[in-house]
Amino acid sequence: MGGLGAPEIILILVAILLLFGGKKIPELMQGLGKGMKEFKDSQNQEEKIPAPVKVEEQKL
Q1: How many helices (H) and strands (E) does the chain have?
Q2: What is the dihedral angle through the alpha carbons of 36, 37, 41, 42, rounded to the nearest 10 degrees?
Q3: Terminal Cα-to-Cα distance of the chain (whole angstroms)
Q4: Nearest one of 3, 31, 34, 29 to 16, comparing CA atoms
Q5: CB 20 within 8 A of CB 28
Q6: Does the reported pTM lie above 0.70?
Q7: pLDDT by residue (tens digit) across 14-39?
Q8: Are 17 and 25 in contact (CB under 8 A)?
């Protein structure tokens, strides 16, 4: 229940083609690819940054 089959995927692709047109789809995919790459790069960069070390305050 709830799976996407071939007819559903074809229907979605046809709807996208009708909404955006043939010329706009490559631009959309390029933008999507760039966004995914930037997201992936930011995650990798975040993993490289070490967590700050907490220093306990001395009581006077």
Answers
A1: 2, 0
A2: -40
A3: 66
A4: 29
A5: yes
A6: no
A7: 898 888 888 888 888 899 899 999 99
A8: yes
